From TrEMBL:
Substrate recognition component of a SCF (SKP1-CUL1-F-box protein) E3 ubiquitin-protein ligase complex which mediates the ubiquitination and subsequent proteasomal degradation of target proteins. Acts as a positive regulator of the BMP signaling pathway. Required for dorsal/ventral pattern formation. It is found in: Cytoplasm. Part of the SCF (SKP1-CUL1-F-box) E3 ubiquitin-protein ligase complex SCF(FBXL15). Coiled coil: none annotated. Its main location: cytoplasm. Pathway: Protein modification; protein ubiquitination. Belongs to the FBXL15 family. CDD domains: F-box_FBXL15. Residues 65-257 form the F-box/LRR-repeat protein 15-like leucin rich repeat domain. The keyword Nucleotidyltransferase does not apply. This is F-box/LRR-repeat protein 15. It comes from Zoarces viviparus (Viviparous eelpout). Keywords: Cytoplasm, Leucine-rich repeat, Repeat, Ubl conjugation pathway.
Amino acid sequence: MDEEAKMRTRCHLLDLPWEDVLVPHVLCHLPLQHLVSLQRVSKQFHSLIQVYLANCRTFDLSSIGPSISKEAFCSMLKDNKVLHSLSLQSCSDWVTDKELLPVIGQNQHLQRVDMSGCVWLTRHSLVAVSLSCMHLQRLGLAHCEWVDSLSLRSLADHCGGLQSIDLTACRQLKDDAICYLAKKCLTLRSLSLAVNANITDESVEEVAKNCRGLEQLDLTGCLRVRNQSIRTLAEYCPKLQSLKVNHCHNVTESSLDPLRKRNVVIDVEPPLQRALVLLQDVLGFAPFINLQI
């Protein structure tokens, strides 16, 4: 076979069917940063990557967030209407409502959205998520201090199937908003109210009584939470697996012990265990103590 015949029989990557082979079986295995690099190879590769981005179900910028521009973000998602998962965690330096609202508006099948740390967004983004993404199951809003009572109520009204929400350090929120969320989102399994001094026993008790399937609760730094609500939690939430109460100085072992006996993972050691650790630090070794006495 001569050289010309060999050239005719060669199959180049881009000769393979794009939507039937390359998109679902090849490009889906590449990290996003590699796809961005491929776009620069040629016009054909740019078109191929755009086809992939228009059909991808998961979009996670955690690996390249700070290194792409607003314009690139908008270009990458301008044709996508099938997203199920969107993570913006690492885009906190630049993403605003202007970039995010069009993406949310055309992706009504989103089930997971993580906006944690995106400080330049406003309540309008959360309202847009609540109105467009009625199948939402998981939402990350950690350190989004722009989240207020009205936007959270909108979320509760429209996303009743929510299973997990992270409200760490959303310091505008008070008991009334959390209680409203608990009454509307009965299928919550994971909830973080950490680092919010406004949260009291009222919120925890309402969550416990309405969200009976709760598995994980983070109350780290909720200084006004007391034993009363932890006892209510133990009574109403038989599926609880993890409880974080570090720096909750009004929560004592009397309310935690029943949960320990159910093998709930708690992030603070029992008093005797803490004392042994301190003693070991002072003495340099762990003394033998018969704990069965």
